[in-house]
Amino acid sequence: MRAGHGFVAPYMVLLVAFGVVPTVYAIYFAFTDAGGAFVGLANFVAAAEDFRFVAAVGHVALYLVFWLVTLVVFVVGLALLLHRVTARPVSRALRLLYYVPGALAGAASVLVWLFMLDPAVSPAAFLLRAFGFDTFGQVVAPEHLPVLFTLMAFWTGAGGWIVVMYGALNNIPADLVEAARIDGAGAWQTARRVQIPLLRKWIVYMVILTFAGGTQLFVEPQLLSQASVGVAGRDYSLNQLSYDFAFQNDNVNTAATISVELLVLGLVVAGLFVARSRFFDAD
Amino acid sequence: MPTDAPAHLGRRNPLSTVVLALFALFFTVPVLWLVLAATKTDDQLVHGNPLSFGSWAALRANWTALTGFGDDVIFLWLRNSAVYAGLALVITLCVAVPAGYALALTEFRGRRTLLVVTLVVMIMPNSTLVVPLFLEVNAVGLIGSTWSVVLPYSFFPFGVYLAYIFFSTALPRELLAAARLDGCSELGVFRHVALPLAAPVVALVGFFSFVGNWTNYYLPYVLLPESDQFPVQVGLGTLLANVPQFNPTAGALAVERPQLALAALLAIAPVLVVFLFSQRFLVAGMLAGATKE
To answer: Which of A98, A219, A276, B127 could form a disulfide with B217 if both were Cys (CB 3.0 to 4.6 A apart)?
Structure first.
């Protein structure tokens, strides 16, 4: 009995210090004013009425739609195609190539894509020009940003998921796929009726993790706003807005409301997933 | 298994070959471009073939200029990244492996609750709490200290979950029972029976922890005010702000684009090395628990 507590004690300390306490802090600040007096929902109203708030919610929502649809379609599609490649070294090499950009996650991938999207230096300049973009400013116009952020996120994040999805496909018993083939199912039929239903759990897992991460959009718009002289505003995403409330407007109470909202959203999604998916029925 | 598939299944569909090849280009050309960009002058970058090699002399000149920026500050940033991610890696392993072990193989009050909390927190992105974390760290006067970044990095519920799954699948309870019968203390069972078998999960947790922390931008950006404390990810942002083509208001310390490319290469090098050898960790980690039905 005692020993178990000893083994988990250090973890409990970190859980309290960096999980529970910040959460309590966020809630405390969100419902009080600068003097520490309880103000009910006033901070939430103030945040929601800020002209940047609705815009930021819209930006993040639009980005999430683009990003999740792209991710599911191409990760599942590419994993299925790779799984049909019979030459093992080819399949292995392709998986590695798809996966390597993941090493550039964070600021490095944003830098790379700033270059890729600048017609002056990009190896894909011919493509950009074919779309009618001659300058960097035209490429990073505000209405293009959800697509551009999707491109960056897909470039760094998709390869890892393709590798994982491929691994999940390998776990599907070969006789199931063989049985479908004997029943006359083609590649598309096999994928649709056998493989994709069996991947469902992993697709849901991927969508949940990506959704939760996607609401936290920060480094991409932040660096882009530095590099485009304000084409992308500094309050494009919710995390940027929260940051600016706290450090530019000196209003940590309003900043905390955004943390609380993202926290609730994350908790609801994570809780639903853990409760409904039976994913973690290991115990 | 691809190799076991009947031959006709593998007959090349030209369309799928084209799709796979186009995506290979999409994923690799930007990396290749980045490597080559570091070997060029800014003029070559604009006027030369985008996928050509510049010259060793230009690479050396870029290196000199980059390291000259702010008196070798790029090395300081790299060192900071190594310290933050390295310390957090050690602490994470010391914390997560015993915790996962206890959750899997011992009984204690609150075990089930702790497990559920771990699962929920693990799915939530850690950046949700960055601003409140700043307020907390500020309240205890630790803003700007190494620990203000290292300790939050060391809180890694996903690592606990991986260790939990590992110990509950890989270690038969009978083995532990036998050790206990032989008079081994609980700590002794962990040290002499569980730990020697834990190498795979140590590697797995270490991989996810190191990669996640090395590439983190938001948390150190908020918690570390001074340039000489930045990890290299945040440092890249500083360099970017000094590239005139991206930021016309850049000051006198102008950074040329090839130097920025070189800095990005240095920043990703450690993670790239880890990545090249770790594809199987990724699959093992993300599919953990799948076989337990």
So the answer is: A219
Q: Smallest CA–CA separation between A27 and chain B, in Å? A: 9
Residue A116 has its nearest CB partner, among B3, B30, B94, at B30
- The reply to whether B124 touches chain A by the CB within 8 Å rule is yes
Query: Which residues of chain B are under the pLDDT cut of 50?
Result: 1-10, 291-293
| Phi, psi (degrees; rounded to nearest 5) at A221 | -65, -30
Closest listed residue to residue B286, CA positions, set A167, A193, A50: A167
* Mean pLDDT for chain A overall: 90
The torsion of the CA quartet B244, B248, B249, B254, rounded to 10 degrees, works out to: 10
Task: List CB contacts (< 8 A) between A83 and chain B.
Answer: 2
**Does B10 sit within 8 Å of A81, measured CB to CB?**
no
State which amino acid sits at residue B92. T
Domain positions in chain B are 12-54, 73-224+282-286
* A9 domain residue, yes or no: no
CATH of the domain spanning B73-224+282-286: 1.10.3720.10
* Chain B residues with CB-CB distance to A91 below 8 A: 2
pLDDT at residue number A148: 94
Write down the pLDDT at residue A93: 92
- Which one of A86, A123, A168 has the shortest CB-CB distance to B29? A123
Contact B133 A22 (CB under 8 A): yes
Domain assignment of residue A83, yes or no: yes
With a cut of 60, say whether residue A280 has pLDDT above it.
no
Residue that the structure tokens 């599942």 belong to: A76
Q: With contacts defined as CB-CB under 8 Å, which chain A residues touch B246?
A: 114, 136, 226-228
CA–CA dist B181, A91 (Å, integer): 50
> Which residue range(s) make up the domain with A117?
53-277
- pLDDT one-digit tens code per residue, A163-221: 999 999 988 888 888 898 888 888 888 888 889 998 888 898 899 889 988 999 999 99
Q: How far apart are CA B189 and CA B196, in angstroms?
A: 10
ipTM of the complex in this document:
0.90
Among left, alpha and beta (phi > 0; psi -120 to 50; other), residue B110 is left
With a pLDDT cut of 90, the percent of chain A lying above it is 62
